[in-house]
């Protein structure tokens, strides 16, 4: 994997993470100020963003993939599972956590995913656990703890439902990151992400159809926020994130995606005017340190017969 590909991967996942983090804060404003229902927003954003991605794909050389992905039963089943257990689960659990707490807490809990991915791959003997892995895991855990509790060992500053939904979001993101790799080997990311969004949106439509909404809550300002959440916070964020998997290993993508909490924290504090403690800023610094370590730290050289999560051989194996 050449340096230019890795740089592209870093750029995509960083942009995707920032869009996703800001989109979460905008969604929080929609929930709390405009009374928009979580089910409706998730359904609408998935359906519109999914159709938009497939529309873009229809202008590319590999437009036939839009249909070809359904011709193989095994691939079709994988796509359905990815759409329901990956895409829909990540979207809904994340938004539910925001609704019960705030965007900063939701994104921080979601980024337990890198820790889950590291231990999953080590347990399956797909990678060795390195010293750098240990440091990044510790920084992620310490940073998340400080951001969530502001340094208290006995007090949680967020409601329990927000924590539960946030942890479930982390599990869903870990699955989403790993499960997408085989599909991306065969089809463009636009095809996979687009269909996954449509599948997830259609499934949730049975619970909350997108046309069922209180029009009195939809102002012009609310429409602008909804547009941002759908286009930037959903379509571009997910597309960039999953496209980066072509250039980076799953662990790298998920750890660099930790920029998302920083974007959510900054917009939550400075835009929504929610207070932030000194220990929470220290936790932010831990996450920044983790990202810098991943981006600029030395890649370990695997011993004969071993693979690391940084190695190209590992990436190709997925």
Task: Give an account of the 3D structure.
The chain is an all-alpha fold. It has one domain (3-317). Helix content is 74%, strand content 0%. The chain has 14 helices and no strands. It has helices at residues 3-34, 38-57, 65-68, 73-100, 103-110, 113-123, 131-149, 160-186, 189-205, 220-243, 250-256, 259-270, 278-296, 312-317. α4 runs antiparallel to α8. The chain starts with a helix and ends with a helix. The relative contact order is 0.21. Mean pLDDT is 83; it is low at 302-318.
What is the overall shape? globular
Mean pLDDT, as a whole number? 83
Structural class label: mainly alpha
**Whole-number count of domains:** 1
Helix segment count? 14
Beta-strand percent range = under 5%
Largest sheet: none
Low-confidence spans: 302-318
Tell me the Rg in angstroms: 19 Å
Termini separation: 14 Å
List the helices and strands in order: HHHHHHHHHHHHHH
Report the strand count. 0
């Amino acid at each position: 994997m050449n340096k230019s590909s890795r740089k592209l991967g870093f750029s995509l996942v960083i942009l995707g993470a920032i869009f996703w983090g800001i989109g979460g804060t905008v969604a929080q404003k929609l929930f709390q100020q405009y009374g928009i229902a979580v089910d409706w927003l998730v359904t609408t954003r998935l359906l519109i963003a999914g159709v938009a991605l497939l529309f873009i794909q229809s202008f590319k050389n590999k437009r036939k993939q839009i249909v070809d992905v359904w011709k193989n039963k095994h691939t079709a089943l994988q796509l359905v599972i990815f759409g329901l257990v990956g895409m829909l689960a990540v979207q809904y659990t994340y938004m539910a956590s925001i609704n019960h707490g705030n965007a900063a807490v939701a994104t921080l809990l979601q980024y337990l995913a890198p820790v889950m991915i590291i231990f999953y791959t080590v347990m399956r003997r797909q990678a060795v656990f390195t010293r750098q892995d240990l440091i990044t895991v510790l920084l992620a855990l310490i940073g998340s703890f400080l951001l969530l509790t502001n340094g208290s060992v006995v007090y949680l500053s967020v409601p329990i439902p927000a924590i539960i939904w946030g942890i479930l979001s982390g599990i869903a993101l870990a699955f989403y990151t790993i499960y997408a790799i085989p599909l991306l080997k065969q089809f463009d990311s636009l095809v996979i992400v687009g269909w996954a969004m449509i599948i997830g949106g259609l499934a949730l439509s049975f619970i909350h159809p997108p046309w069922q909404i209180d029009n009195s809550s939809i102002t012009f300002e609310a429409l602008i926020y909804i547009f941002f959440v759908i286009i930037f916070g959903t379509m571009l964020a997910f597309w960039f994130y999953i496209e980066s998997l072509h250039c980076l290993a799953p662990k790298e993508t998920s750890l660099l995606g930790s920029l998302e909490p920083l974007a959510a924290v900054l917009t939550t504090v400075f835009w929504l005017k929610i207070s932030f403690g000194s220990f929470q800023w220290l936790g932010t610094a831990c996450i920044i340190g983790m990202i810098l370590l991943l981006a600029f730290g030395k890649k370990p050289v695997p011993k004969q017969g071993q693979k690391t999560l940084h190695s190209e051989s590992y990436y190709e194996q997925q």
